[in-house]
Amino acid sequence: MRRVLLAVGIVSLCLSLNVAAAKEREKPSGSIKLSAGSVAAGVGVNWGSGTLTYHGKSYPISVSGLEVGSVGASQITASGSVYHLSKLDDFDGNYTAAGAGATVGGGGGGVVMKNQNGVTVRLGATTRGVKFTIGAAGVKMEVKK
Predict the structure, then answer these.
(1) How far apart are CA 126 and CA 105, in angstroms?
(2) Is residue 100 over pLDDT 50?
(3) Residues pairing with 49 in the sheet
(4) Range(s) of the domain holding residue 109
(5) Does 1 map to a domain?
(6) pTM over 0.85
(7) Of 82, 20, 74, 26, nearest to 50 (Cα)?
(8) Is residue 101 part of a domain?
């Protein structure tokens, strides 16, 4: 009986590792870069703009509802990958948390968000000590027209 349980446990672990490895190999549809400036203690930044790179072209985007908690930062940048974007129009929408926030190397923070079209954005801070918070209504992102 113990051997059966051990075998089941090993198989389950291997399947979990394969799923995790597949997610790591998933190819992004595009990339995203955001920037904001001037943050004082206790004040959140509600982003204004960024750039989506999709099929080799750069598109300006507007972003609202993504808040940053930081003390004394003068320039905050964030970048990440965009997944499951099959056409540019699918990028526009309200994004909500799609997974637990991740810690990014160097003490930065990250967030995984997903919109109503199934587009997923994995965003990480490139400024040390930045922590992202998604606003109560989510994060609205859209390509500027």
Answers:
(1) 9
(2) no
(3) 35, 62
(4) 28-143
(5) no
(6) no
(7) 82
(8) yes
